[in-house]
Amino acid sequence: MAVMVEWWGGRDLRSMLPRVFFEHFSSTSLVAERGDELAGFLVGFVCPDHPGEAYVHFAGVHPAWRRAGLGADLYGRFFALARGHGCTVVRAVTAPVNTTSVAFHRGLGFRLSPGDDEVDGLPVTVNPGPYGEHLVHFERRLDGDGGGA
Q1: Complete domains list, the chain, with CATH
Q2: DSSP code for 35
C-alpha cells in the first residue's frame, strides 16, 4: 500500500499491512473509491479465537476525503458485516500519538479499554511486538450498548 506513507504524513506504516491480510481477510475488508481512485480502506476480520468479536486491524482515508463521512461509512459497513457473522463486539487499536484516530473512534461510540500504562491521559498497553510501542485499545459493542451505526 504505497499510499500509506503519504496518507500518514510521512510515517511509514506499510509493515502493518502485509499482503497476507489482503489474501486471507478480503471478505471482511473494505475499499472505498471516488472515481477510479482509492479514497479509503478498512482491513478487518472476525476473530476465530474469540467468538462474537471482530477486529479492525487498519483503516485509512485519503486526506482529501477526511471529515466527509467516508471513514464512518467504512466502519458502518464493517459493523454490518460483523453483525452478519454473529459478532457483538468490535475491537480496534491506534497509537496514542494519533489523536485524530482516538477522537474518530470515540466519536463512533468506541470506548477506551483499560491499559497497563498511561500516555497523555490515555490508557495504553505496551505492545509486546517487535516495535514495543504503546497502543490505545478500543471496544465497541454492537448489541445496543455502545452507540449506533
Answers
A1: 3-141 (3.40.630.30)
A2: T
